[in-house]
Amino acid sequence: MEKLDIEITSISGYKNKSLLEEQALKFKPKYVCSVDKVTSDHLKLALAHTTTKVLAGSEGLCEMVSCDDSDTVLSAIVGVAGLLPTTAAIRAGKHIALANKETLVVGGKIVTELAAKHGVKLLPVDSEHSAIFQCLQDPHSAKRLKKIILTASGGPFLGKTAKELEDVTLEQALNHPNWSMGSKITIDSATLMNKGLEIIEAMWLFDLDVSNIEVTVHPQSIIHSMVEFSDGSVLAQLGLPDMRIPIQYALTWPDRKQTPVPPLTIESMSNLTFGLPDEDTFRCLAACKKAAEMGGAAPCVANAANEQAVELFLERRIGGFLDIGRSVENAVDNAQTVKEFTVETAIETDKETRAKTREFLLG
Q1: Average pLDDT, stretch 228-254?
Q2: Would you list the DSSP string of 252-296?
Q3: 254 upstream amide cis, omega within 30 of 0
Q4: Per-residue pLDDT at 181 exceeds 90
Q5: Using CB atoms within 10 A as the burial measure, which of 97, 146, 252, 356 is most buried?
Q6: What was the pLDDT predicted at 178?
Q7: Which of 197, 188, 239, 237 is nearest to 215 (CA)?
Q8: 291 Cβ neighbours under 8 A, 6+ residues apart
Q9: pLDDT, tens digit, for every residue of 333-350?
């Protein structure tokens, strides 16, 4: 961060005590926070000789992101847990570098209206949404946006049938061919749930209907997404599959600075392929599209069912990889209409859906 001339005022994390301690000692932030009590207790002892204040829990996160010392918050908490601190940061007038797609999936209307009210920018960090954002930098062309095309690697099971996926192991599902990511998002990529969530996120980020968003399977992950304008022109953003590029762009926008990422070569672009996703096999994608069309609480329900099912799969409490897609599909099919959708409603809907999903999977 020194090379980018960015000062880190606060750091949060979950259970990695040693890394949080290391980063706190290196960057000397005003605050460090963990929602895990064991980790926060460790940090209080480890950082007692410093001026860094250790916070804990969701309340600590909200306090941290609201402090006066920062102007931008990188929201990268996994899942619906990112909604409260992100909205707290927006209310405090912070620009949001958004890596937590679930925040917009669950509370898209809430978050975008809040950002507009407080004059806050939502800067996408996901490689796909960053690609679209970069392709829309010309404000005149952006007014003539016709549709966006999200690219998907296809994950480790590209081309597999439902029959072939019945006995998939956890280790196989975590073996992504292109990206190095956390366990939850890697499973989401394998089920194509990640792409379903990205469709919903893109609707809110770029003010589009679900019918104006397409998905194409691009196994090489060189083209990160494309946009089509009213005259038929298509722009694409290309780069090696390395998250340092979109993360840095969100933090330095509108400027661009050098990254340590190797340059893209002509040779690496010599065999780019594209195809349609198999929504019959990868049911999460179809369920997310349906949830997007339903609106209201349905996207929140889809996300909660997926988070619960993936958690159980990672804990080896369910053996069926395909059960994840079945859970999301079942939850969306049974989603209830909510008249007024608030942050509190979203949290309650998430809680209820998780319970129903556990019952659906475990009996």
Answers
A1: 96
A2: HTT-----SSPPP-TGGGTT---B---TTT-HHHHHHHHHHHH-T
A3: yes
A4: no
A5: 97
A6: 75
A7: 197
A8: 196, 200, 298, 299, 301, 302, 332, 335
A9: 999 877 778 888 899 999
Residue 263: half-sphere exposure toward Cβ, Cα within 13 Å: 4
pLDDT at 123: 97
Q: 3-state DSSP call for residue 150? A: strand
The token duo for 182 is: 């956390």
Residue 111 near residue 98, CB atoms below 8 Å: no
pLDDT digits (tens, 9 = 90+) for 118-146: 999 999 999 999 999 999 999 999 999 99
CA 149 to centroid of chain Cα atoms: 17
pLDDT given for residue 93 in this prediction: 97
Contact criterion met (CB below 8 Å) for 220 and 270: no
Mean pLDDT of the chain: 94
- Cα(18)–Cα(164) distance, integer angstroms: 40
Q: Is the sign of the CA dihedral 363, 349, 11, 184 positive or negative?
A: positive
Nearest to 329 by CA among 285, 295, 361, 363: 285
Predicted local distance difference test score (pLDDT) of residue 340: 79
Q: Which domains does the chain have, with CATH numbers?
A: 10-126 (3.40.50.720), 127-154+192-277 (no CATH)
Beta-sheet strand order (sheet of 72-75): 72-75, 95-98, 122-124
Residue 4 confidence (pLDDT): 80
